[in-house]
């Protein structure tokens, strides 16, 4: 096996006789792009991917998904992409008002039994709904 520099382009004819071609690439084009990482990095990736299959990791990731959902809701409802005001005091006050607004929205949904999960409808799905009526 010949040594290749990282992220080198290999001709298709170089891969045809190789019995490990399917493990290296799934590309169907004439040229293939291979990324060869140092052994330590490859081992770290394998270890991380193995941990992603554990129950503890999935539990921790579920918490992260909840936080990301809260951030998405804050951005969608209170438009927190940019602060409306200059200065730390006014920006801090804006964040507090936004948090209070989100809490009130969530309390209202909980008291009235409405789910908070508003899934995004794709453009294609909206178009199909529009023409279905």
TrEMBL record:
Pfam families associated with the record: DDE_Tnp_1_6
Source taxon at top rank: Bacteria
Cross-referenced InterPro entries: Tnp_DDE_dom
Domain Transposase DDE stretches: 12-107
Name this polypeptide is given: Transposase
Species of provenance: Streptomyces humicola
